[in-house]
Each structure stands twice: as structure tokens, then as C-alpha cells.
Amino acid sequence: MSIDVAGKLFPNLATIVIQLLSTGVLLIIFRKFFWAPTQKYFQKRADFIESQIQDAKTSQQKAKQLMLESEEQARQSAKEYHDIIEQAKNDALKIHEDLVAKAKEEATRKLEQAEREIEVEKQQAREDMKKEMVNIAIEAATKVMSKEMNSKENQQMVEDFVDQVVH
Q: Alpha carbon 84 to chain centroid distance?
């Protein structure tokens, strides 16, 4: 058994030429019938992928913009919330101060009214006391007139009269 090593290492020239010609024919047929549709398919696929990438970038930019806007709105809302709370505190403090001022004013007014009433009562008491003193003096004078007394008795009668008035 002899193996032809040279024949195995080097292919037959006719086989190479036939294989090259058949490959060329296949390339020409492919080029003629399949090249343009394949290129169109790959171009459409590339355009589709590119549009998907552009849409994704646009969506990402819109999302970033919306996120920034929502963060700004959140900050604005927080600021408005704090402003409302501060305004409510200020309003409550003002109402408290107004109530305290009104209460003080009312207390002052009632105190002044009470002082006026006390003064009127004092004046009335003085007038009543004057009337009582006049009546007592008239009574004393009537008693003195009805009796004939000496100066010692008159002195004693006046002292008794003063004691009655004072007590």
C-alpha cells in the first residue's frame, strides 16, 4: 500500500480551477439576485437600530428634563409649604397678641368702671352721712332747745353727739 503523499499535499489543478469557477458563479448569482435585497435589509435594520437609539436618547433627555422640572416643583412646593406654615404661625401670633391686648383693654375698662362705681358709692355714702349728720344735729339742737342747760351739760351733749356720729 502505497500512499501518494504528493498527490494528497498538492491538490489537482483542474479541481482548483473548477472550484474557483463555481465559487465565482455563485458570487455572481448572489451579487445579481441577493446582494441588493441583502443590502436593503441590512440598511433597514441599521436605520431601525439608529432610530431606536435616537428615540432612546430623546426619551432619556425628556426624562432628565421632566426629572429636573419635578425636582424644581418639589422644591417650590416645599418652599410654599414652609411659607404657609410661617404665615400661619405669624397669623396665630398676631391673633394671640390681639386677644391679649383686647383682654387687657377689657380688664382696664372694667377696672375703671369699678373705680367709678366705687367713687359714686363713696359720694352717695358721704351724702347719706351728711343727711344723717344734719338730722342728728337737728335732733340735738331740738333736745338742746327743749332743755335749759348749763354749759357743762351742753359740752357733754356735744361730746355724746360726736360719739354717736363717729361710731
A: 4
Q: Quote the Cα angle for 66-68-70, to 5°.
A: 65
In the numeric block, which cell numbers belong to residue 8? 494528497
Residue 147: enclosing H or E segment and its boundaries?
A: none
pLDDT tens column, 29-42: 999 999 889 999 99
Q: Using CA of residue 38, residue 39, residue 45, residue 48, what is the dihedral sign?
A: negative
For the chain, the farthest-separated pair of C-alpha atoms sits apart, in whole angstroms, at 198
What sign does the dihedral 82-83-84-88 (CA atoms) show?
A: positive
Contact 161, 139 (CB under 8 A): no
Q: Which three cell numbers stand for residue 109?
A: 375698662
Could you give phi then psi for residue 149, rounded to 5 degrees?
-130, 170
Q: Give the burial class of 13: count Cβ atoms within 10 A of its Cβ; 0-12 exposed, 13-18 middle, 19 or more buried.
A: exposed
Which grid coordinates are listed for 24? 465565482
Residue 35, all three cell numbers: 446582494
* Model-wide pTM > 0.70: no
